[in-house]
## 1
Amino acid sequence: MPITKVLPGGAIILGDQVSCDGFGWKHPTRVITHAHDDHLRDFELSLGNQESILMLPATRDLIYAIKGRHLLVRRNLLPLEAGKTAEIAKARITFLPANHILGSAQVIVEMENGKRVGYTGDFWWPIDVMTGLDELVIDATYGNPDYVRGYKEEQVVEELKELVDKLLAEGKRICIKAVAGRLQYVMQLLQPRTRLPFIASKKQSAIAAVYGDHGCLAYPVLDRHGSDAQRIIADHQPYIAFHHLEERIPETDFDAFILVSAYMVPRERPIVQFGKTYRVALTDHADFNATIAYVEKAAPKLVITDNSRGGDAKTLAEEIRGRLKIDAIVGG
């Protein structure tokens, strides 16, 4: 029987001591791999019931920004540096960077009986791979062979920069929309190219402030409800707006919308225009080929594909068995 599993609610269970990215009633320790909502499920339950909640320091800072500064008094929110090992109860927990958003981690758990299990969380390739594992739980966001793009990430970045330069040169008012993390990454890409103010929602500007604290952004992103931002907007001064993909923004407020997502059709073109909207395929997830490459290099005895967060876990498990001859099952 596997000693790792994926619960329907999204908790990744690594042995009898650790739950990841979800709450485990019988598990004294929780790990949070990064600060995206689907990996913070049942956070409040964990806060009140689990003895230790471990994460990389940047993830803890992001949680403070997202959930509130009142969490500073909580003693069970514990930072663990990448490459360091924490001995909690009967388990040893080690983080490796996942290269997804700021503070994202892979998790290795070594149990008292010597078994080693791991969980990637969301990750970008290439990264250092967890090896010597008995069992590996892996993200299946792009677990289907159809999810392979015909261009490199460097091409997407350059075309995005060129698009923004072009729109600014034309005097266009620009709104850029993405999920948290991707949005701040786009800010990183654009800050060296323009001194225009960046204005975002209160939540996204708070997240940007954490990126700044960790050396990722050179100057602050203004809260659109703050006095400085309100004056810039009222005076019709040029600026670039940043909003979460789910925020509703009036079409008339801007001349161009740049929607940063992941994969789209056709997959041979990183940017597609629809009227005044541009869809840009800038992702922080490994595609299918990179996911297979990860498993091949990790070479665990068993792979569990995470079926609790979308993607195609069933196909990924089938492809791992067929291509790599490694035992693989679907979890969640």
Note: The domain at 4-146+287-331 is CATH 3.60.15.10 (Metallo-beta-lactamase; Chain A).
## 2
Amino acid sequence: MEFLHPESLCASQSHYCPGCGHGIIHRLVAEVIDELGIREKTIATAPVGCAVMFYDYMKFDIIECAHGRSPAVATGIKRMLPDRIVFTYQGDGDLAAIGTAETIHAANRGENITVIFVNNAIYGMTGGQMAPTTLLGQHTTTTPGGRGKHQEGGPIRVCELLSSLDGVSYLERTSVSSPRDVIVAKRAIKKAFENQMDGKGYSLVEVLSMCPTDWKLTPQDAVKFVNDEMKKTFPLGVFKDR
């Protein structure tokens, strides 16, 4: 098999920091869309956050949304254009903080959309503040002494939180911190898109991702942090597959 540049991915220079996982996830999304042959009918919604310029990297229609409102916008698009493939691409601050209500209610209604949720346990674009997914004890600019259980509360586990909702069809947590994890993540993303094509309802794939800059780690140590620390708090696996 020949390893080629995905047709759906633009040949543009990335703005992401060295060692960031967003570039890997972008490629996986583009590969899946190419393999499914759905590029001309795909519409994505972009977040506020590190992936705010998602539209610079993809060769399909993308709508920029207000912070956290991607699920609401995606719902409107899918209801008006049910033959389109609609997905959101969101970070943890966008999806699980300001966008919590939109996330929960879109999932609860069983909207037939796909959600790609990038979890790097920190606010990346705005300087490294604590996010809803920041680990207990993790140091950020707003928790310089480490996140405390009684002061800030524990991290929100999105897959576990949504798994009780009847409208949810598919939830899986993956990672891009090893070659094997990347393969599993791509398979999960493809399944989430196929679920939408089959009209099965709401699907979300969570992807644990590296943020060397705001974690103040080397790219190599950031990978180690995901494998040794994040996976303890956010275990990988399928949480719902209806």
Note: The chain has eight helices and seven strands.
## 3
Amino acid sequence: MGGVGSERERTWGGRTLEDRRATRRRQLLDAAYALLGTGGAGAVTVRAVCRGARLSERYFYESFADREALLVAVHERVADEARRAIAAAVAVAPPDPLARATAAVEAFVDLLEEDPRRGRVLLLEALADPSLTRHGIDLLPTFAALVGEQIHVAFGPDGPDDADARLTSVALVGALTHLFLGWLDGRIAVSRTRLVAHAVRLIVAAAPVSSRDR
């Protein structure tokens, strides 16, 4: 052990205690993601996660209060990947409704197809585990705000007002969630091309809806 100063600043093999803790936390998240994305919430136990991460339970509780906190952290990580992918795609798309909706849907479907575990973690398991269901509900305003922002960008001041954009974005997030759920679990047996086309047309048709008095 070497280094001087506070515990956080001391180094072991050239790495600070904070760095080592962050690495252990990532290992635990990776192990839990693998379990949750393949075996579902029931496969995620403290013992199984520690075995997958090759860490003792002592290190589990260094990073997470309990199993539920770990599940939520995994769900949040995948949700953040989705938010960033969608935001990056629409940022470079032309500012019209069809182009932005297509960019957003393509980015999300790409994310699911690149690693099917993402879809299970983000959508399927959110219905199977109470802690993930609550977290999914907590995330709804974030994704709705992303949709609402794009409605304003696409239609400008002559488009739906804030209330209409909010109403539509919440409705769209709910509808699209169940649409993608059905596609992932096989209940909706259509090609990727048709799924994307339908989702895009749904968004474009709903986005300009207004209920305000004229």
Note: The chain has two domains: 11-64, 68-206.
## 4
Amino acid sequence: MSERERFERMVLPHVDAAYNLARWLTRNDHDADDVLQDAMLRAYRFFPALRGEPRPWLLAIVRNACWSWLQANRPAELDSSDDAASDAPGPEALAAREFDRAALNQAIAALPVPFREALVLRELEDLSYKEIARIAGVPIGTVMSRLARARRLLAEALRPSAAAPRLRLHK
């Protein structure tokens, strides 16, 4: 079997997950296509060095390509705090059931990139903390902190405003 055939068999089944990550990080279909194309070329070039599972390996390449693209095209998005937050339970599951999907997508897209990345990899791509840490090149504690912060920010974004008008019932 040729290297190309091995690449197609091992890596191409994970292109949808790779695109999903690129789409969430860039927040734009066209930009995600560009980043994914660059990432796939890198993946093909470095495929002979693959050791281990292809999915986390490919997602790490896509993640790095996204961060490089964001740094070159939207550096202001990368200037966000990465401090720890509360241990609130995952509101994304609750939000998916109780809120309009468009509002949820908009709230996720509005998260700062490090938090959006962690949330997408964990909740949408179902990766372990260890896999996310390896992909993002950060300690597991940082992954946990980013997820907690992402979940808190998401819950705040989806919480009905306290300033919302209240209905008054007249007798």
Note: The chain has two domains: 3-78, 91-158.
